[in-house]
Amino acid sequence: MTSADELVRAGIRPVKRRAEVDLLSLRGVVGVDIGEKITAGRRTGQIGIVVSVRHKIPAERLRRDDLVPAEIDGIVTDVVADDVVLHRALFATGADFPPARGAERHQDVLGGISMGPWRTVLLAPPDVSRVGEYAIVGTLGALATDRDGNVMGLTTFHAACVDDAWSIGDVMVHPSRVDGGSRPEDVVGALCRAALSGSVDAAAVLLSRRRSWRPSIVDIGAVTGSAPAVRGTVVRKRGRTTGLTTGRIASVDATVLLDYRDGLCVRVLRDQLRIESVGGMMGDYGDSGSAVVDPDNRVVGLYVAGNTSGTVVFASPIGKVLDELDVDLVAD
Fold first, then answer.
1. What are phi and psi of 18, to 5 degrees?
2. How far apart are CA 161 and CA 203, in angstroms?
3. Superfamily of segment(s) 225-318
4. Which Gene3D superfamilies does this chain map to (predicted)?
5. Residue 22: left if φ>0, alpha if ψ -120 to 50, beta else—which one?
6. What CA–CA distance (Å, rounded) separates 116 from 226?
7. Could you tell me if 296 and 270 are in contact, meaning their C-beta atoms sit under 8 angstroms apart?
8. Comparing 98 with 56, which gets the higher pLDDT?
9. Does domain 86-217 have CATH number 3.30.380?
10. Phi/psi of residue 327, each to 5°?
11. What are the E-state strand segments in 40-112?
12. Cα 62 to Cα 19, 48, 69, 132, distances in angstroms
């Protein structure tokens, strides 16, 4: 039976969708969601449209055109300060890399492990602090197959493709070159599919026939399948940087504005899962691509981005990821 809260959210969704283009065009706005209005740190019990901004600015310092209306079609609004950024990691080649909880080497290819492109990218300020060649690292989340039975590793577009210079066949290594990976010994496969759309940020890496694999995730166990995300569900993810963490799905309606830079510009992702940590961080730079799983070890999403403190992360729904890549999840 559908709860009263879910019925309210269902009624708000079309209003949010109509308004979010205008809201995202306002100064500093980085996200639009559905959630409970908080006033002076207290819950109000009112469900409305939540607008995320990089910094809250007093109304008197904003132009009238940049003010978030108090209500939209009778739906209350709330403005919260919370930036949203991609959670891949960039490291200057030759630099000392900070330690990571999930960057160890594995003989088998499985979910929750460090992975990144062998190629580096040339970056300059303001994208990075200094000009140089940078290596990229993300996380291989789970395994999938195509219609011919070829086994692939799932991760995000921005961790595997990186910029507009990507191409099918780009070599991927585990561990990533940031974490000590080398070529040809640590080649895990080659980029074969990618999707960056209005609701999905994902890529698939065709595994090398030399590599053994298991349909499992480090510290979590065997993947049992996939499932639609349900608000309120406690979920886990295992990522390259923060390892195993736990959170709760707070929303399945998040729309986020993300700066992909590197020739890919600013993109909007809609209908993302918003996941709040259950104690400490949920994720950090380098965890992008992690599979988000429910208590039954079913994958519900693919971790894409988060706030700068890592207490809130966003994931593309796994059903849309599989559909756009045209693959099936490998389960035990």
1. -65, -35
2. 8
3. Trypsin-like serine proteases (2.40.10.10)
4. Trypsin-like serine proteases (2.40.10.10)
5. alpha
6. 24
7. no
8. 56
9. no
10. -135, 170
11. 42-53, 71-72, 75-81, 85-86, 89-92, 109-111
12. 20, 22, 13, 38
φ, ψ (nearest 5 deg) of residue 67: -80, 135
- Per-residue tokens: 151: 């086994």
Kindly give the residue spans of alpha helices, DSSP state H, lying in 86-223. 157-160
Q: What percent of the chain has pLDDT over 70?
A: 99
List beta partners, residue 152.
144, 206
Neighbours of 332 (CB within 10 A): 11
Segment holding 10, helix H or strand E: helix 4-24
> pTM higher than 0.90 for the full model?
yes
3-class secondary structure, 163: coil
pLDDT by residue (tens digit) across 171-220? 999 999 999 999 999 999 999 999 999 999 999 999 999 999 999 999 99
CATH code for the domain defined by 4-83 = 3.30.300
SS3 188: strand
- The span from the CA of 49 to the CA of 183, in Å, is 49
**Residues of each domain in the chain carrying CATH 3.30.300:** 4-83
Residue 87 has a CB neighbour count (10 Å cut-off) of 31
Question: Could you tell me if 279 and 242 are in contact, meaning their C-beta atoms sit under 8 angstroms apart?
Answer: no
Residue 53: what residue type? V
Rounded Cα–Cα distance for residues 289 and 241 (Å): 11
